[in-house]
Amino acid sequence: MLKRLWFDGRARAVLMQVLIACGFLGSVGWLAWNARVNLTQRGIAVGFDYLGDAARFPVSESLLAYQPTDSYGHAFVVGLVNTLYISVLVIAASTLLGFGLALARRSRHPLVSGIGTVYLEAVRNTPLVVQLLFWYSLVTINLPPARQALQPLPGVFLSIRGLFFPSVSLQGDTQALGWAGAVAAAVLLAAWWRARRRATGGVPWRTLGMAAALVVVLAGAAWGGVAVHTDTPVLRGLNFVGGTAFTPEFTALLVGLTIYSAAFSGEIIRGGIDAVPAGQWEAAHSLGLRPGATLRRVVVPQALRVIIPPMTSQYLSIIKNTTLALAVGYPDLSFVITTTINQTGQAIEGVAVLMAVYLSISLSVSLFMNLYNRRILRTERA
Known about the structure:
Largest sheet: 4 strands, antiparallel
Strand order of the largest sheet: 1-2-3-8
Number of strands: 8
CATH architecture of the largest domain: Orthogonal Bundle
CATH topology of the largest domain: MetI-like fold
Oligomer: single chain
Number of domains: 3
């Protein structure tokens, strides 16, 4: 029987896979046991009990409230929120800048095309950490003090203290507006579902749903007396108060990552646009469409099927590149975990948390982008 199983290709393949899996799991188990024994011999505690202890280190900036007396677990959450915040901003900004760079590279004007090419070659052939250090030194050394701050736009100030710009907030009974927003979301979902059921002809359910949702939100704002309040930064003493402020570390990281990532995103978008057959451009022109309308209504929807897969990898690279925030002192998740490891010695646990978090973020982004890509492909087939 064993001889017959051995000469059975399928049975032999299953046996080899089982042996490889057992060998891998055994190796991982031996490494874990060996690490635990060595750490115990050196008096280093193993486990995640330290997450409840006081962190005892400051975090220079965070979207969430934080004090050094808070736990390591809360510090990890603060670092995670900072990482997600900078990642979302860089992804959005680099995509928009990359789209402009792609159009510049395709331009028939030699000056515009040349500027795009020089930008691309200079950025892509320079290490990212060098660029981050360059922008950090530019922000922290070469910018003027607050009293002589640069003002590129009304209400926007750039100085050695960072970037300051107006903030917008809501005042009034925001609870009524929240309930109105929930009702508006339900109306939009119902309209979208109804439009899917009646794909052609009939009532324009999506337009009606958007109009009804807008009316509900405005009614909720009027009922709660909600008003939009703008807070503009004002110079007082040696610094600005009011508005929203980006610290020099955050500004350097945002600018550096955006400029670096836009070079790669621009080439991906340009490749997707070039992949659309020239006949599509000619057909749109023959129908009387302007170049902008042709690009928006004909070319870009077809180019997305080529753009989305490599852009997924680019977005994942942006998220992983945020770990270089350590070079400019921005307290992202890797910064917080590195500080925790230096204080507690829990290196294995800290690295495990860091790997698990970035793996979860990457898988979530990949899942969302793949679902969006499938939707585009289904729309094209239909």
